[in-house]
Amino acid sequence: LPGTVPEEPRCTVERADASLTYSLFLQRFAFSRPVILGGGTDNSVSAGRGRRVPAGCRFPPHPSRSSRALPAVDVPFQEYVEHLLKPQDPARLGSDTLYFFGDNNFTEWGPLFQHYVPPPFRIPGTSPAYSFGIAGSGSGVPFHWHGPGFSEVIFGRKRWFLYPPDKTPHFHPNETTLAWLQHTYPTLPPAQRPLECTLRPGEVLYFPDRWWHATLNLDTSVFISTFLG
User: Could you tell me the pTM of the whole model?
Assistant: First the structure.
């Protein structure tokens, strides 16, 4: 239920403020470990001063892509927000849970990305690709990995779990992150627990290449990721 998904007891991801320089970012974090950046962007316009749907956005009339553990499905965004955006049912598998994220149509979502102020850093030799998402309390993406990127929370709170590339987490690919937190996480010895932290609006997480990560939305959340490819 909303408000019942807990934050982590202690944030174990390093934080940096706006004084972090690009050279220090490359030296300390870009290729080695995640970091939470604060104060580097101002997306208050995108956040619409607290409204759940960012300012400048209209509901696209055409079907939008929603993700889940199995192949994605196309549903109208307004239908997703009004009828499918609900708290996670702990008994549901990932294949039964819809999660709006990825494959955004940049014509329909252009006003959102035009207002968005991206993270200040890049990895040499890469270019950014944005993805907008909105999801209900208790929903999330199970452990996976890909190239480096940033993720910013615009509204709500999002809890992150991260492992380095050489530590494969124990999980079932069709198990939701909420189920993993309830059943597997409590059995992990302290040395086997992931790095974790909760992001709040205006905070940006950077994750390096091939780092395992899973997410859990503690509230109805709006977020934008910047993938570096």
Answer: 0.84
CATH superfamily of 15-53+60-85+92-228: Cupin (2.60.120.650)
Location of structure tokens 């174990």? 12
pLDDT at 178: 92
Would residue 106 be called left, alpha or beta, if left means φ above 0 and alpha means ψ between -120 and 50 degrees? alpha
Alpha-carbon distance of 221 to 2, in angstroms, equals 11
C-alpha 214/C-alpha 107 separation (Å) is 29
What are the sequence ranges of the domains in the chain? Answer: 15-53+60-85+92-228
Would you state the structure tokens that stand for residue 219, as one six-digit string?
């509230």
d(CA 108, CA 58): 8
* 99 strand-pairing partners: 67
Instruction: Let me know: does 140 contact 216? Beta carbons within 8 Å.
Output: yes
Q: How many residues does the chain have?
A: 229
How far apart, in Å, do the first and last CA atoms of the chain sit?
36
Q: Which phi and psi angles does 222 have, rounded to 5°?
A: -120, 135
Residue 202 identity (one-letter amino acid): G
Band (4; pLDDT cuts 50, 70, 90): low
